[in-house]
Amino acid sequence: MIQSIDELANVLRGTGLEGRALGEVWQHCGTDPVFTVALEAGREYDEQALLRSLMAQTGRYALVSSKDHVDMTFCESAPSAPPEWDWIEATAAETLLVDGSAYLATGGSLSRFSETRTDDFSGWLAIDLSHPSHPLSDIQRRFGEAPSVQQICDLRDSGVLRSDADFERWLLRWEVERFGDAALLPPSFHYLDGHEFSEPHPRVAVLLPTQQSWKALLYTAWYGLEGGGAAELAASLRVWAENYGAELVAAFGTTLYLQVARRPSNIDEAFVLALEHRHFASDTFVLPGVSTRDHARALLTLDRWFFHSRP
Protein backbone atom coordinates (compact mmCIF):
# COMPACT_ATOMS: atom_id res chain seq x y z
CA MET A 1 0.00 0.00 0.00
CA ILE A 2 1.43 3.38 -0.98
CA GLN A 3 2.25 5.63 1.96
CA SER A 4 3.32 8.92 0.41
CA ILE A 5 2.22 11.51 -2.13
CA ASP A 6 5.39 10.83 -4.15
CA GLU A 7 4.40 7.17 -4.49
CA LEU A 8 0.91 8.19 -5.58
CA ALA A 9 2.29 10.62 -8.16
CA ASN A 10 4.44 7.82 -9.59
CA VAL A 11 1.40 5.56 -9.96
CA LEU A 12 -0.55 8.32 -11.73
CA ARG A 13 2.25 9.13 -14.17
CA GLY A 14 1.15 8.47 -17.73
CA THR A 15 -2.56 8.37 -16.83
CA GLY A 16 -5.25 11.01 -17.30
CA LEU A 17 -4.69 12.03 -13.68
CA GLU A 18 -1.01 12.90 -14.04
CA GLY A 19 -0.32 16.37 -12.72
CA ARG A 20 -3.51 16.64 -10.67
CA ALA A 21 -3.37 18.33 -7.30
CA LEU A 22 -2.70 15.72 -4.61
CA GLY A 23 -3.27 16.01 -0.88
CA GLU A 24 -2.67 14.15 2.36
CA VAL A 25 -4.99 14.04 5.35
CA TRP A 26 -5.22 11.81 8.41
CA GLN A 27 -7.79 9.71 10.22
CA HIS A 28 -8.90 10.69 13.70
CA CYS A 29 -8.56 7.15 15.00
CA GLY A 30 -5.92 5.52 12.78
CA THR A 31 -2.27 5.81 11.85
CA ASP A 32 -2.41 5.52 8.04
CA PRO A 33 -2.56 8.64 5.87
CA VAL A 34 -5.44 9.23 3.44
CA PHE A 35 -4.68 10.76 0.04
CA THR A 36 -6.80 12.98 -2.18
CA VAL A 37 -6.76 13.56 -5.93
CA ALA A 38 -8.49 16.57 -7.50
CA LEU A 39 -11.17 15.53 -10.00
CA GLU A 40 -12.44 17.17 -13.16
CA ALA A 41 -16.04 18.37 -12.91
CA GLY A 42 -18.34 16.16 -14.94
CA ARG A 43 -15.85 13.29 -15.08
CA GLU A 44 -15.87 12.23 -11.43
CA TYR A 45 -17.21 8.73 -12.02
CA ASP A 46 -14.82 8.06 -14.92
CA GLU A 47 -11.84 9.21 -12.90
CA GLN A 48 -12.95 7.21 -9.85
CA ALA A 49 -13.12 4.16 -12.13
CA LEU A 50 -9.57 4.88 -13.31
CA LEU A 51 -8.33 5.02 -9.73
CA ARG A 52 -10.28 1.84 -8.98
CA SER A 53 -8.40 0.13 -11.84
CA LEU A 54 -5.11 1.18 -10.22
CA MET A 55 -5.96 -0.32 -6.82
CA ALA A 56 -3.49 -3.19 -7.29
CA GLN A 57 -0.75 -0.54 -7.46
CA THR A 58 -2.04 1.87 -4.82
CA GLY A 59 -3.44 -0.70 -2.40
CA ARG A 60 -6.20 1.84 -1.70
CA TYR A 61 -9.93 2.12 -2.39
CA ALA A 62 -10.98 5.33 -4.15
CA LEU A 63 -14.20 7.21 -3.36
CA VAL A 64 -15.56 10.46 -4.76
CA SER A 65 -16.39 13.14 -2.19
CA SER A 66 -16.39 16.91 -1.81
CA LYS A 67 -13.39 18.85 -0.61
CA ASP A 68 -15.56 20.34 2.15
CA HIS A 69 -16.66 16.91 3.40
CA VAL A 70 -13.06 15.64 3.40
CA ASP A 71 -11.96 18.66 5.42
CA MET A 72 -14.66 17.92 8.00
CA THR A 73 -13.96 14.17 8.12
CA PHE A 74 -10.17 14.02 8.35
CA CYS A 75 -7.33 15.88 10.11
CA GLU A 76 -4.71 18.01 8.39
CA SER A 77 -1.82 16.50 10.34
CA ALA A 78 -0.82 13.11 11.66
CA PRO A 79 -1.82 12.23 15.23
CA SER A 80 0.89 12.94 17.79
CA ALA A 81 0.46 9.46 19.26
CA PRO A 82 -1.24 6.22 18.16
CA PRO A 83 -4.92 6.19 19.14
CA GLU A 84 -5.91 4.11 22.12
CA TRP A 85 -8.81 2.62 20.15
CA ASP A 86 -9.25 2.29 16.39
CA TRP A 87 -13.01 2.48 15.79
CA ILE A 88 -12.75 1.57 12.11
CA GLU A 89 -10.74 -1.62 12.68
CA ALA A 90 -12.93 -2.62 15.64
CA THR A 91 -16.11 -2.09 13.61
CA ALA A 92 -14.65 -3.92 10.61
CA ALA A 93 -13.93 -6.93 12.80
CA GLU A 94 -17.50 -6.78 14.14
CA THR A 95 -18.84 -6.55 10.57
CA LEU A 96 -17.34 -9.92 9.70
CA LEU A 97 -19.48 -11.49 12.44
CA VAL A 98 -22.75 -9.87 11.33
CA ASP A 99 -25.30 -11.72 9.18
CA GLY A 100 -25.92 -8.96 6.67
CA SER A 101 -28.69 -10.88 4.91
CA ALA A 102 -30.63 -11.27 8.16
CA TYR A 103 -30.27 -7.57 8.93
CA LEU A 104 -31.45 -6.55 5.46
CA ALA A 105 -34.41 -8.90 5.68
CA THR A 106 -35.73 -7.35 8.89
CA GLY A 107 -34.15 -3.93 9.22
CA GLY A 108 -33.88 -4.52 12.95
CA SER A 109 -36.71 -4.49 15.43
CA LEU A 110 -37.45 -0.77 15.01
CA SER A 111 -38.05 -0.83 11.26
CA ARG A 112 -41.60 0.14 10.36
CA PHE A 113 -41.24 -1.99 7.24
CA SER A 114 -40.07 -5.10 9.08
CA GLU A 115 -41.99 -8.22 8.11
CA THR A 116 -42.63 -8.76 11.82
CA ARG A 117 -44.28 -5.39 12.45
CA THR A 118 -48.07 -5.51 12.20
CA ASP A 119 -50.87 -3.28 11.00
CA ASP A 120 -48.88 -0.05 10.48
CA PHE A 121 -50.49 0.47 7.07
CA SER A 122 -53.99 0.62 8.54
CA GLY A 123 -53.66 4.35 9.12
CA TRP A 124 -54.11 4.86 5.39
CA LEU A 125 -57.48 3.14 5.49
CA ALA A 126 -58.98 5.88 7.64
CA ILE A 127 -57.79 8.71 5.36
CA ASP A 128 -60.08 10.02 2.65
CA LEU A 129 -59.27 8.67 -0.80
CA SER A 130 -59.07 12.22 -2.14
CA HIS A 131 -55.85 12.76 -0.17
CA PRO A 132 -53.07 13.13 -2.80
CA SER A 133 -50.71 10.80 -0.93
CA HIS A 134 -53.22 7.99 -0.42
CA PRO A 135 -51.68 4.88 -2.05
CA LEU A 136 -54.99 3.71 -3.51
CA SER A 137 -55.79 7.09 -5.04
CA ASP A 138 -52.29 7.14 -6.54
CA ILE A 139 -52.97 3.79 -8.20
CA GLN A 140 -56.30 5.11 -9.47
CA ARG A 141 -54.63 8.15 -11.02
CA ARG A 142 -51.87 6.10 -12.60
CA PHE A 143 -53.84 3.14 -13.95
CA GLY A 144 -57.47 4.24 -13.90
CA GLU A 145 -58.40 1.47 -11.48
CA ALA A 146 -57.53 0.58 -7.87
CA PRO A 147 -58.45 -1.91 -5.15
CA SER A 148 -61.17 -0.74 -2.79
CA VAL A 149 -60.60 0.23 0.82
CA GLN A 150 -63.00 -2.54 1.81
CA GLN A 151 -60.93 -5.11 -0.07
CA ILE A 152 -57.81 -4.04 1.82
CA CYS A 153 -59.69 -4.11 5.14
CA ASP A 154 -60.91 -7.64 4.43
CA LEU A 155 -57.36 -8.80 3.65
CA ARG A 156 -56.10 -7.20 6.84
CA ASP A 157 -58.85 -8.72 8.97
CA SER A 158 -58.24 -12.18 7.48
CA GLY A 159 -54.50 -11.96 8.29
CA VAL A 160 -53.27 -11.81 4.70
CA LEU A 161 -51.90 -8.28 5.22
CA ARG A 162 -49.99 -7.93 8.48
CA SER A 163 -47.50 -5.15 7.79
CA ASP A 164 -46.59 -2.29 5.49
CA ALA A 165 -44.35 -4.71 3.58
CA ASP A 166 -47.29 -7.08 3.04
CA PHE A 167 -49.46 -4.17 1.89
CA GLU A 168 -46.91 -2.86 -0.62
CA ARG A 169 -46.14 -6.35 -1.95
CA TRP A 170 -49.82 -7.14 -2.43
CA LEU A 171 -50.46 -3.84 -4.23
CA LEU A 172 -47.50 -4.41 -6.55
CA ARG A 173 -48.71 -7.89 -7.51
CA TRP A 174 -52.22 -6.53 -8.06
CA GLU A 175 -50.84 -3.88 -10.41
CA VAL A 176 -48.65 -6.31 -12.36
CA GLU A 177 -51.43 -8.88 -12.75
CA ARG A 178 -53.79 -6.29 -14.21
CA PHE A 179 -51.54 -3.97 -16.17
CA GLY A 180 -48.56 -6.12 -17.13
CA ASP A 181 -45.44 -4.31 -18.38
CA ALA A 182 -47.04 -0.92 -17.77
CA ALA A 183 -46.90 -1.67 -14.05
CA LEU A 184 -43.13 -2.19 -14.23
CA LEU A 185 -42.36 1.39 -15.34
CA PRO A 186 -41.21 3.70 -12.53
CA PRO A 187 -43.07 7.02 -12.48
CA SER A 188 -39.97 9.08 -11.62
CA PHE A 189 -36.29 8.96 -10.71
CA HIS A 190 -36.26 12.42 -9.16
CA TYR A 191 -35.51 11.15 -5.65
CA LEU A 192 -32.38 9.26 -6.72
CA ASP A 193 -30.16 12.30 -7.11
CA GLY A 194 -28.69 14.13 -4.16
CA HIS A 195 -27.50 16.94 -6.48
CA GLU A 196 -23.94 16.77 -5.16
CA PHE A 197 -22.60 16.51 -8.70
CA SER A 198 -24.52 19.54 -9.94
CA GLU A 199 -23.29 21.85 -7.19
CA PRO A 200 -20.22 24.03 -7.86
CA HIS A 201 -18.04 22.57 -5.10
CA PRO A 202 -14.59 21.06 -5.71
CA ARG A 203 -14.69 17.26 -5.69
CA VAL A 204 -11.85 14.90 -4.96
CA ALA A 205 -11.14 11.21 -4.94
CA VAL A 206 -10.24 9.96 -1.49
CA LEU A 207 -7.78 7.05 -1.43
CA LEU A 208 -8.50 5.05 1.71
CA PRO A 209 -6.26 2.47 3.44
CA THR A 210 -8.43 -0.49 2.45
CA GLN A 211 -9.28 -2.41 -0.72
CA GLN A 212 -12.81 -3.35 0.36
CA SER A 213 -15.92 -1.38 -0.58
CA TRP A 214 -17.80 -2.30 2.59
CA LYS A 215 -14.92 -1.20 4.81
CA ALA A 216 -14.55 2.05 2.86
CA LEU A 217 -18.01 2.99 4.18
CA LEU A 218 -16.60 3.16 7.70
CA TYR A 219 -14.22 5.98 6.72
CA THR A 220 -16.91 8.22 5.21
CA ALA A 221 -18.57 9.94 8.20
CA TRP A 222 -21.88 9.35 6.39
CA TYR A 223 -24.73 10.42 8.67
CA GLY A 224 -26.35 6.98 8.47
CA LEU A 225 -23.46 5.61 10.54
CA GLU A 226 -24.35 7.83 13.48
CA GLY A 227 -26.11 6.33 16.47
CA GLY A 228 -24.94 2.73 16.11
CA GLY A 229 -25.49 -0.03 13.58
CA ALA A 230 -22.34 0.70 11.54
CA ALA A 231 -21.33 -2.96 11.43
CA GLU A 232 -24.80 -3.95 10.16
CA LEU A 233 -24.66 -1.30 7.43
CA ALA A 234 -21.19 -2.37 6.34
CA ALA A 235 -22.34 -6.00 6.33
CA SER A 236 -25.21 -4.93 4.06
CA LEU A 237 -22.69 -3.67 1.50
CA ARG A 238 -20.93 -7.04 1.65
CA VAL A 239 -24.21 -8.78 0.79
CA TRP A 240 -24.97 -6.44 -2.09
CA ALA A 241 -21.44 -6.79 -3.45
CA GLU A 242 -21.95 -10.55 -3.63
CA ASN A 243 -25.51 -10.45 -5.00
CA TYR A 244 -25.35 -7.44 -7.34
CA GLY A 245 -21.70 -6.50 -7.72
CA ALA A 246 -22.50 -3.26 -5.89
CA GLU A 247 -19.53 -1.04 -5.01
CA LEU A 248 -19.43 2.25 -3.14
CA VAL A 249 -18.28 5.01 -5.53
CA ALA A 250 -19.16 8.29 -3.78
CA ALA A 251 -19.91 9.43 -0.23
CA PHE A 252 -20.94 12.80 1.16
CA GLY A 253 -22.28 13.91 4.52
CA THR A 254 -25.82 12.56 4.04
CA THR A 255 -25.66 10.63 0.74
CA LEU A 256 -24.06 7.54 -0.76
CA TYR A 257 -23.79 6.36 -4.36
CA LEU A 258 -23.12 2.74 -5.36
CA GLN A 259 -22.29 1.40 -8.82
CA VAL A 260 -24.09 -1.88 -9.63
CA ALA A 261 -22.92 -4.63 -11.98
CA ARG A 262 -26.14 -6.70 -11.95
CA ARG A 263 -29.77 -5.62 -11.71
CA PRO A 264 -32.59 -7.67 -10.14
CA SER A 265 -33.84 -10.24 -12.63
CA ASN A 266 -37.58 -9.73 -12.01
CA ILE A 267 -40.02 -7.54 -10.12
CA ASP A 268 -40.35 -9.92 -7.15
CA GLU A 269 -36.58 -9.87 -6.60
CA ALA A 270 -36.58 -6.10 -7.09
CA PHE A 271 -39.24 -5.70 -4.40
CA VAL A 272 -37.19 -7.71 -1.89
CA LEU A 273 -34.19 -5.53 -2.73
CA ALA A 274 -36.29 -2.37 -2.37
CA LEU A 275 -37.25 -3.49 1.14
CA GLU A 276 -33.55 -3.99 1.89
CA HIS A 277 -32.83 -0.46 0.67
CA ARG A 278 -35.61 0.85 2.90
CA HIS A 279 -34.10 -0.91 5.89
CA PHE A 280 -30.64 0.43 5.01
CA ALA A 281 -31.60 4.12 4.62
CA SER A 282 -35.29 4.88 5.03
CA ASP A 283 -34.84 8.63 4.43
CA THR A 284 -34.25 7.77 0.76
CA PHE A 285 -37.97 6.94 0.61
CA VAL A 286 -39.63 8.84 3.42
CA LEU A 287 -38.42 12.36 2.66
CA PRO A 288 -39.56 12.40 -1.00
CA GLY A 289 -42.63 10.22 -0.29
CA VAL A 290 -41.66 7.32 -2.57
CA SER A 291 -43.33 3.92 -2.17
CA THR A 292 -41.39 0.67 -1.93
CA ARG A 293 -43.26 -0.48 -5.05
CA ASP A 294 -42.00 2.44 -7.10
CA HIS A 295 -38.45 1.93 -5.87
CA ALA A 296 -38.67 -1.74 -6.89
CA ARG A 297 -39.70 -0.64 -10.38
CA ALA A 298 -36.73 1.75 -10.53
CA LEU A 299 -34.29 -0.96 -9.46
CA LEU A 300 -35.12 -2.96 -12.61
CA THR A 301 -33.47 -0.21 -14.68
CA LEU A 302 -30.79 1.32 -12.44
CA ASP A 303 -27.04 0.73 -12.63
CA ARG A 304 -26.35 3.17 -9.79
CA TRP A 305 -28.00 3.27 -6.37
CA PHE A 306 -28.48 6.34 -4.20
CA PHE A 307 -29.05 6.46 -0.44
CA HIS A 308 -29.95 9.36 1.80
CA SER A 309 -29.76 9.65 5.59
CA ARG A 310 -30.00 12.95 7.40
CA PRO A 311 -30.73 14.45 10.82
Report on this structure.
By secondary structure, this protein is α+β, with helices and mostly antiparallel strands. Helices cover 41% and strands 12% of the residues. The chain is built from 15 helices and seven strands.
Short description:
With 311 residues, the chain is α+β, with helices and mostly antiparallel strands.
Question: Main attributes?
Answer:
7 strands, 12% strand, 3-stranded antiparallel sheet, 4-stranded antiparallel sheet, 2 domains, 311 residues, alpha+beta, elongated
Distance between the termini: 36 Å
Total beta strand runs: 7
Class inferred from helices and paired strands: alpha+beta
Strand content is 5-15%
Unreliable stretches, pLDDT < 50, 5 or more residues?
Answer: 109-118
Q: Which sheet architecture does the biggest sheet show?
A: 4 strands, antiparallel
- What gross morphology would you assign? elongated
> Helix segment count?
15
Evaluate the radius of gyration: 22 Å
**What is the string of helix and strand elements?**
HEEHHEHHHHHHHEHHEEHHHE
In total, the number of domains comes to 2
Sheet with most strands: strand arrangement: 1-2-4-3
Helix content: 40-55%
Mean pLDDT: 91
